[in-house]
Hints:
94% of the residues lie in helices and 0% in strands. The model has no long low-confidence stretch (mean pLDDT 85). The chain has two helices and no strands.
Amino acid sequence: MGAALGPILLGAQMVSKIAGIRQEYKSQQRAYEAQEQAARQNAAIVERQRSQQADAYAQKQAQLNDRMRLVRGQAAAAAGAGGFTAEGSVNDILDSSYDAYQKDSVNLLSQQRNDSWSQYVNQVNYLNQANAYDTAARNVRKQGHQKIFSTLL
């Protein structure tokens, strides 16, 4: 009976060791998968922020357009009230206002593009992190299977 007990104990040790290896790699795999999920959620958040940012810049541009129309209207009204025609100094004032408007508009567009690019880079970085975590999780699983196989041999 003692001779039969040896292989049973060896088998039990083997099963215990394999279970330990499996638990270890599964734990690492779950950790990497959780990090991957967090990175993908961060990428989705950044994407939504980019959309909100575009809306905010569109609103700023609309306000800039409204301000330009108001300035032009006020200048035209003042000129008309003063009996001036749309020539000379009134046109100079309107042209100057329009030049300032154009510069502000271009600056706003440039800021929007820079902010959008920055957010896009953040989003891509999060997606790259997610892909790296996914790869790490698959590698840990594969290494765990190899450890189990070598233990069985």
